Amino acid sequence: MSLVEELKSAVTPRAALLVVGVFALQLLFIASYVGALHNPKPKDVPFGVAAPQQVSAQLIGQLERLPGEPLDPRTVTDEAEARKQIMNRDLDGALVVNPGGTTDTLLVASGGGTVLSSALETLFTRVEGANGRTIRTVDIAPASTQDFDGLSAFYLVVGWCVGGYICAAILAISAGSRPANRERAIIRLGVLALYSVLGGLGGAVIVGPILGALPGSVAALWGLGALVVFAVGAATLALQSVFGIVGIGLAILLIVVAGNPSAGGAFPLPMLPPFWNAIGPALPPGAGTWAARSIAYFRGNDLTGSLLVLSAWAVVGSAITLVMSSLKRTPESEPIAEEVAPATP
To answer: For residue 88, which phi and psi values (nearest 5 degrees)?
Structure first.
């Protein structure tokens, strides 16, 4: 057999196409992670200013003119209102001006991302210094001492996402699995749902009672985890039902390549470039990370949007899986690979 024939035998056209796809996925992985995370800096951070009226307008104008537009400043009535909006996750920080002295108060919430809180403190140390004033920083939603850089919520959600798409991939393409008809699709979704409940509970218990990495309700984190796992798994089953094995790669593209760097984990959303900042909240890792931090540090505030995003992935993924299983039925008489007995001489 010639070298060309050996090559054709060893690497089929289908395998060659899959290798090309993997190569593209690899380059996209590098471009996405490095593109999102190589140069983090605050951009249009929602920020409140509580100051006397005659001072407020001038200060907001100064903050709006800062190089690079790091802040999106707006007036708040007083410190109590600033604290409320930060805890509701409408603001990422606020400056409370003391008209009777030279020391103002910077309110931050490191539970939403310690890197952003540190960036705000550095920025306002410079701004206040230029105005002949000083700041004292008050962290009203501090990250746990066991939650280094506020990353535990992100890693928790990444773990749930990994479990979701690997479980779905195994159910869809493991050796001996029949192509899904309606009944098999329902069974696989049921198995995925059971796995999601167990996976959500396991993650919540590990980061809570076992490691003490995240405060907040274990039951709430359990429910969130079950939804994240099922949403990712259902989306993976849907993509596989439409595109075959290529759908598994597309799931990795959505969840790992696009979703993880845009999730606001390593760097909160206001520190990401515009593209990743825009897509992050619409993908399961971003929605899950935001919700997990809300549960852990913000009294469960501002969960609705993230839960709706995750629910949409779960519902649409399940619906597509069921529809495609009805359209692509395989005759019951068709044997699977392991049922075909080798011919006897």
So the answer is: -80, -5
